[in-house]
Specification:
The protein is about 70% helix and about 0% strand. The protein has about 350 residues and is mainly alpha-helical. The longest helix is centred in the first third of the chain and has 24 residues.
């Protein structure tokens, strides 16, 4: 990814965004990145090195061997896995999962940014939580990608809502961005979205653990994982449990907040799809800020973070915003990826 970034950065400083050479560059590097990411992620070893992947693999082979299946939650994913056990191996299953995870990001980028889709796709796959939710929290990752696919069919509301219902069936936590989609679709005032997000910060700081207890007490049906994450601390004794008020995560979240504020209020972009997209992010991210101290709060954060890429990149690829726009785009990609790189180096 660093190699892709550096080549792109050099290209952005030596070419013009609107030249045919840049369009060719976007196409060639876009497909190289798409194929490489798909093969690299989709053909990884089935191993506990990737967290929950080992458990998924063990369960998959137990079903293949005739083990009894009791499905009580995330029905669509589990029945999908049972169906796959009848026709494909565990290795092929994880490749199919990778396809479902990655292709909607490509389709979204291609539809909304045309010949410049590579730059949007790069931000998608260089996002801080892209890799973990493709290899560890794979149900969450699949569900958010189906949500993105729903946005791909934005003009066909029946298809959009059907895909969002499927995303909920894959992982019930998607109720949060789905609710945000509905609310921001009805009330289309970006100033209100910004106010909600800003208000969430002091409310979280003052409220402390109140919000985790409040939302945890609302109940989550038969699936107690979300309630456990909110109210019971590190229930799995896992080193990946991020707790406390994470200012670094709040900084990362603010990238999309600032981008939307800048493009909508400063550059006067009135694109209704973009405003709706920003509204989904702001509402879902505000929820995460309230429960930021929860065990595995990164899983709640991802319910908004998966939209950071299009919020940052969409206007830069569709509108003429600046002189030397390609150089600025290269700089945006550099800064965005640098956060991911430094967070992973830090461990």
């Amino acid at each position: 990814m660093m190699l892709f970034l550096l080549i792109t950065l050099v290209h952005s400083y030596t070419n013009n965004l609107f030249d045919n050479s840049t369009k060719t560059f976007s196409s060639v590097f876009g497909y190289l990145l798409l194929i490489w990411i798909l093969l690299y992620l989709g053909t990884r070893p089935i191993s506990y090195v990737f967290g929950d992947m080992g458990t998924y693999g063990k369960t998959y082979n137990q079903i293949v061997s005739g083990g009894q299946v009791i499905i009580k939650k995330d029905f669509l994913f589990n029945y999908f896995m049972v169906f796959c056990t009848k026709i494909i191996s565990d290795r092929v299953f994880f490749f199919v999962v990778a396809l479902i995870y990655i292709l909607p990001l490509y389709l979204f980028s291609k539809k909304y940014c045309g010949t410049y889709w590579y730059f949007v796709f790069f931000i998608f796959v260089s996002s801080y939580m892209f890799w973990p939710f493709g290899t560890n929290g794979i149900r969450n990752g699949m569900a958010t990608s189906l949500f993105v696919l729903g946005l791909f069919f934005y003009e066909r509301k029946i298809v959009t809502y059907a895909l969002m219902a499927l995303s909920f069936g894959i992982h019930s936590s998607l109720v949060i961005p789905i609710a945000a989609f509905v609310v921001s679709g009805i009330y289309k005032n970006p100033k209100v979205y910004l106010s909600i997000w800003l208000a969430a910060i002091p409310l979280s700081l003052i409220g402390g653990g109140f919000w985790e207890g409040f939302f945890g007490g609302l109940g989550f049906g038969d699936d107690t994982r979300a309630e456990d994450y909110l109210t019971k601390g590190n229930v799995n004794n896992d080193v990946f449990a991020y707790t406390g008020f994470r200012w670094d995560f709040l900084l990362y979240s603010s990238f999309a907040v600032f981008a939307g504020w800048y493009f909508i209020f400063k550059k006067n972009i009135t694109d209704q799809f973009y405003i709706h997209l920003w509204g989904i992010y702001m509402i879902a991210n505000a929820f995460w800020i309230l429960v930021i101290r929860a065990n595995f709060s990164n899983r709640f954060a991802y319910l908004s973070w998966f939209l950071i890429a299009p919020i940052i990149a969409y206007p830069t690829m569709r509108y003429k915003l600046w002189n030397d726009q390609y150089k600025i785009i290269g700089g945006i990609l550099f800064v965005y990826y640098l956060f991911t790189y430094l967070m992973f180096i830090r461990g």
